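Structure ticket #2291
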Amino acid sequence: MRTPLIAGNWKMHLNLDQAAELAAAVAGVAEACPDREVMIAPPFTALARVREVAGERLILAGQNVCWEEKGAFTGEIAPPMLRELGCRMAIVGHSERRHVFGEDDAMVNRRLRGAMAHGLVPILCIGETLDEREAGQTMAVLERQVRDGLQQVEISEAAGLVIAYEPVWAIGTGKTASPDQAQEAHEFVRRLLCEVYEKNIAAGIRILYGGSVNAANVDEIMAQADVDGALVGGASLSAETFERIIRFA
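Resolution: structure written out below.
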């Protein structure tokens, strides 16, 4: 059985006091829901403050991570730095990193391997644009992003991976993939992981859905066989809304 993971990506929002207040509320919900895992990725500037109120059950993550442990990489954050701040996970390949900041699959792979080398669980984000979906390229895009993103990741390392399918056209737009669309993509990724690794490994890798997940649609999305959690953006900034998502039925 795959333990559900509900992850909140706070992006570039919240000051220190707001982040600590929200984290404390989310930590309380996480403590009350032992059958699922809860993760938050605050801005880097808030991680130290959030750690003070996070408790044991709430997982902290970096919104990105460099592949090097130190050096002349202005604006980056190293895996040991995230570990020192209490992080256990790191998001890599988010669509905003790919499409706003120009990160390609090779860079995403370097970040992923850098995270894993220092004991961070990477959340590998994949997903197609609206143009790619309308051109019938969805599965080809997902296959490329998975295969290239997992280059040089050995089978012995793969069990700890998390993958997040986030159709770019559904992020922050209010549009959500239908449950059938989400399941179709997740099932395809699961089959692909069987080819890249093996069936037993693929069966254990969690695949999250992201893209305008909210309190109204989370139950239906989470009911799909290959959806193992959610990567939540804007809806994770409200304690009330995020609690409802964490407590999905």
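Closing remark: The chain is about 40% helix and 15% strand.
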